[in-house]
Write a structure and sequence with these properties.
single chain; about 525 residues; alpha+beta; four-stranded antiparallel β-sheet
């Protein structure tokens, strides 16, 4: 007698697991949500649900009752192609985000093209913009070739290494050096898979941005989610439907299939608009920062790359400091020390700025993610920041792009770099000319001149960002990003993070397996 005969009534010991394919994302989200409101199985739910019923359900429970967890269940894949590096950085700035972008290490961005803002009647700024971009790309191309050749002369190919692998490795390192010259106008492409909840907040955030390209990107994302999706199986589906149509009794069904368009999120994203809370708060915080730090120069701490700011302040001071930091270009330690001396009433006023415009369904801004044990204020090149930006288990408070912090000159510590390749003077002239042109355009009369000028900033330009995290994440980043296979920019940052931890928490730092950035590496064994 089998053990099943001993099961009491109502007991079931067979778990059923099956993959689901072919359902529209919103319909699938509705079916999953029904688990909390119906005893139907997934198969039964999907069989009875039509796209129209799903939309009716979502309009009721999602929009009227705010059941945003339903949107967590609808995952949508997007291809976003030919957007600027500047727009890409804004796009991926989500804590719940999965995707991949074109790599500056393995692809030649000379072929990518670049974004051209609307300069209106300001032809002088337009001409300066074009000349600067073309000069940066010409220097990028020359630097890539010069560093590649210098590496070939200094790095001997082992007999066991195939010539194509050897050349690919050296070319990747040459791209690592040359990428500092790429302007934020450079076009890139990326793919993302996000749930509809993240997509809704992403679209709203993009629509709230001061850069026109980014706002247009928000509209395009919303249109892509609510309009017909591209069907990778369209050709095979059409051929199959044509066979059905040849049978008279199935002709009507075939016609219905042929006419059907898949819309990935026609309901969940259609109401996404610019966020007044974000726009108004950002504006007022920038004004508060100017009033609090009117003539105070940005004072860089002794360890300029990474500053692990120890916790000495109250939670209220941390919140107010982070808000002012976000609206300024000053180091966190400097802002924290100034804010901590303010009267309690003034600190409360700053916090109030961050919350007074919050709408009924708005989450508090990211700057309110406070209380993390470790706060790393990092000043690094934009190119390296794009790599560090991928860490989603941290709270990142990025300041605006500016040339005020200067730029990085890549010193890889390897056998050949800019100086060895004989292009260091050319590199410096290109970067400094781009910064000068950006400042000149920002002062011009073109529409959105200040925003258009940002596109000329090369990836060598330094950007400041506050990374808040726990010990486990600091350990993870220090170990992963200091490894020899990584780019030397973030390897240096990860090593400095480890050293900062070692100084402040030596008993914990000894458990971190960081790789000493100051030690030479075998370029061919990366």
């Amino acid at each position: 007698m089998s053990s099943e005969s001993f099961l009491p009534a109502g007991a079931h010991n067979q778990t059923d697991v099956y993959a689901v394919h072919g359902a529209d994302p919103e319909v699938l989200a509705y079916a999953m949500a029904k688990y909390s409101r119906s005893a139907l199985s997934m198969r039964e739910s999907l069989t009875e649900i039509s796209a129209q019923r799903a939309e009716q359900f979502l309009n009721t429970f999602y929009f009227q009752y705010g059941h945003r967890s339903i949107a967590d269940l609808a995952h949508i894949a997007f291809a976003v192609e030919r957007l600027s590096l500047l727009a890409a950085i804004v796009l991926v700035d989500e804590q719940r985000w999965d995707g991949q972008e074109r790599s500056t290490r393995y692809q030649n961005f000379q072929k990518s093209g670049w974004y051209f803002p609307d300069f209106g009647t300001d032809s002088a700024s337009a001409r300066l913009y074009i000349d600067t971009i073309e000069n940066l790309f010409a220097t990028y191309q020359h630097t890539t070739a010069a560093v590649h050749e210098a590496l070939r002369q200094r790095v001997t190919r082992p007999e066991s290494m195939k010539p194509e692998a050897y050349d690919r490795t050296l070319k990747a390192r040459a791209f690592d050096v040359a990428r500092y010259l790429l302007p934020l106008a450079t076009n890139t492409s990326l793919g993302q898979i996000v749930n509809a909840r993240t997509l809704e907040t992403q679209v709203s955030r993009l629509l709230s941005h001061p850069v026109a390209e980014v706002r247009d990107l928000g509209k395009n994302l919303r249109d892509a989610a609510t309009g017909p999706a591209w069907n990778v199986n369209a050709k095979s589906s059409t051929e199959f439907i044509a066979k059905l149509a040849a049978q008279p009794e199935l002709a009507a069904e075939a016609a219905a299939l042929l006419a059907r368009e898949v819309r990935t999120a026609p309901t969940l994203v259609k109401y996404a608009e610019a966020n007044p809370y974000l726009i108004q708060t950002r504006r007022e915080l920038e004004q508060a920062a100017r009033e609090l730090l009117p003539e105070i120069p940005s004072k860089t701490p002794p360890h300029a790359v990474v500053d692990l700011v120890e916790r000495t302040e109250t939670l209220e001071v941390e919140l107010a400091s982070t808000l002012i930091y976000w609206g300024s270009d000053h180091p966190y330690r400097q802002v924290r020390d100034i804010v901590s001396q303010l009267p309690a009433a003034r600190i409360a006023e700053i916090i109030e700025i961050g919350l007074k415009h919050r709408g009924k369904h708005d989450e508090a801004l990211r700057v309110f993610h406070a209380g993390a044990a470790l706060r790393f204020d990092i000043l690094m090149d934009i190119g390296g920041f794009r790599d560090m930006h991928r860490h989603r288990r941290v709270t990142q408070i990025k300041q605006g792009f500016t040339a005020k912090h200067g730029y990085e000159t890549p010193h890889s510590g390897d056998i050949a770099g800019l100086e060895e390749a004989g292009v260091l003077p050319e590199y410096r002239v290109a970067i400094e000319s781009a910064h000068a042109a950006s400042a000149k355009i920002a002062a011009g009369s073109a529409p959105g001149a200040a925003m258009s000028a940002l596109y000329l900033l090369p990836l060598a330009t330094r950007v400041r960002c506050l990374f808040k995290m726990d010990f486990a994440e600091a350990q993870y980043i220090s170990e992963l990003r200091s490894a020899p296979a990584g780019h030397f920019s973030y390897r240096n940052v990860a090593w400095e993070m480890y050293l900062a931890l070692q100084r402040q928490h030596p008993s914990l730092a000894k458990y971190i397996r960081a790789t000493d950035f100051s030690q030479p590496i075998d370029l061919l064994q990366r």
